[in-house]
Write a structure and sequence with these properties.
333 residues; TIM Barrel; elongated; single chain; nine-stranded parallel beta sheet; alpha/beta
């Protein structure tokens, strides 16, 4: 009788099976844990992006404490002006820019047209600001409140004989997507908050002769708040220059009512950061002054603007008389 073959397969001991099952469970737990961690990280990234885009927390914070600025940080620098919508400019670098010709000799008693050029948004780039201050010309320097180098640049401008203004941030239509920075006046503020913050900004700058608005396309259309702002300006015997960031601005009417010295921007010089464009805008500023007797131009601390101003200053002085902003303001009748 043939012997039955026995299977050589050995059964795995129960202890080893238990150990393998434990290892599998540990690996599974690790995979599940990593998966959960990845999901949480992705959720946090999406939530952070949503927060930065909508910024609901900032909107609930009292405006007077929004965006504290670190003296050593350039990352807190607010954006330059939000310019009003204007027809698109056709850039034609190949087209020669007309040169400024030497004017004919004026009859006795006839003065040259007056031009006030205001350098806005100073306070964050000390080196570039000092280069503008050192330019061989008469300019008005408008400094932002609570910026790292505001006081240093204001003192340097005053020491060099330049006029200093407060470039007062005001709420734009684009807020909160665009935040004007520290020291901003918001339409939601109470009269006490508004006046207190404006006085605080002015107290920080002892050399200030006037005020112009940084942004403010919303605030400058709100007559009650403008009158509150202008009451402070009148009490301090300052002037106001409207940057005209909105075609609907009510600043002129409010200045007329409170009888404060007033003027408004005629030409934005460098809202396109292009040397040829800046050159043409300065020619437009000169032409405007020749037609009206005076004109106000506003520019910003851009390297391109500095370069063009250096090149054009000798020719500009042949056509117009550069004056501080206080010499182009007047009472509105």
């Amino acid at each position: 009788m043939a012997k039955r073959k026995t299977s050589k397969k050995r059964s795995v001991p129960r202890k080893k099976r238990s150990k393998r099952n434990t290892q599998k469970k540990q690996i599974l737990r690790i995979i599940l844990g990593l998966s959960l961690l990845i999901v949480l990280v992705l959720f946090a990234v999406v939530a952070a992006n949503h927060f930065l885009m909508r910024n609901p927390a900032t909107a609930s914070v009292p405006p007077s404490v929004i965006d504290p600025v670190s003296p050593d940080s350039h990352l807190s620098k607010p954006p330059f002006e939000v310019f009003p919508e204007e027809p698109p400019v056709v850039q034609t670098p190949a087209t020669p820019v007309p040169e400024i010709s030497t004017p004919a000799v004026k009859p006795p008693g006839v003065s040259s047209p007056r031009v006030a050029i205001i350098i806005d948004d100073l306070g964050y780039d000390r080196g570039l600001g000092e280069k503008f201050i050192d330019l061989d010309g008469i300019f008005t320097f408008s400094v932002l409140p609570k910026a790292p180098f505001t006081k240093k640049l204001a003192e340097a401008a005053h020491k060099n004989g330049h006029e200093v203004m407060l470039h007062q941030p005001m709420e734009p239509n684009e807020y909160p997507e665009i935040n004007p920075g520290p020291g901003t006046l918001y339409t939601a503020m109470s009269p006490d908050e508004l006046l207190s913050l404006l006085n605080e900004n002015l107290d920080d700058l002892p050399f200030v002769k006037g005020v112009n608005n940084h942004m403010g396309s919303k605030m400058t259309t709100e007559t009650p708040q403008l009158r509150q702002i202008f009451s402070v300006i009148k009490k301090r015997e300052l002037y106001f220059i409207d940057s005209r960031t909105s075609a609907l601005t009510k600043a002129k009417d409010s200045a007329r009512l409170l009888k404060i010295p007033f003027a408004e921007r005629d030409v934005f010089i460098d809202h396109y950061d292009d040397t040829d464009f800046i050159h043409r805008q300065l020619l437009l500023l000169i032409k405007t002054a020749e037609q009206n007797g005076s004109a106000v131009g506003i520019c910003h601390p851009h390297p391109a603007t500095l370069k063009v101003l250096k090149e054009m200053l000798p020719e500009i002085r042949k056509k117009v008389r550069l004056v501080p902003a206080s010499e182009v303001v007047g009472e509105i009748v």
